[in-house]
Hints:
Residues 204-230 are annotated as: Disordered. Residues 124-226 bind DNA. The protein is α/β, with parallel strands linked by helices. It is 40% helix and 20% strand. It contains eight helices and eleven strands.
Amino acid sequence: MTRILVVEDDPDVATALRVLLTRAGYEVVAAADGREALRRLFADGPDLMLLDIGLPGLDGWQVLERTRDMTDLPVLLLTARGAESDRVRGLRAGADDYLPKPFGNDELLARIEALLRRAAPARWAGAAQDDALRLVPERRSALWHGTEVRLSDIEYRLLQLLVRNRGRVVTTDQLLDQVWDDPQGIGRERVKFAVLRLRRKLQQGTEGPESDPIEAVRGMGYRYRGERSP
């Protein structure tokens, strides 16, 4: 059964959404604030998230940003803010669709169905692993040969993107666009130095350069190949 995470702090709205979605045949999990949303996101692995922007604690923008560090599942923003600037901000931050309140039940269900039709199965960074590596999104770290490696946000997002594309070259322009949100490719040297820092961290306490899982592909970009065979 398709599982939907509803992130909404208004109990009346949350209850109405649960009833609507359950009747439509979906499994519903709910969160009333941003921190609970992230816990449920990691624990339940939903297929789609309905996300309210005006949340207590971590707001919807912060939840969306952290969600995109963990998964590419569809996110539909539900918010009382209907200004074009808010819609643009949401879409640029990684939301897949935007529905201002109040909205009709039929429109909401139609948008959910459309997102689910277009979406491939959500990929989860926490599940990305091989014999040597496991990403730990809730701690922004990686377990490399059983040793925890603490990473900066940029290093974590960089490693996550490379792991998602295991075996394929990710170009420098793609890294700038998706990790740094720099589609114009300004400051390309930052990629080189960030990869260098990441590789050094992964090599610390392991077998040295021969255990480096990241390959530089001259003139193109970088590739995560996993642990190098002995």
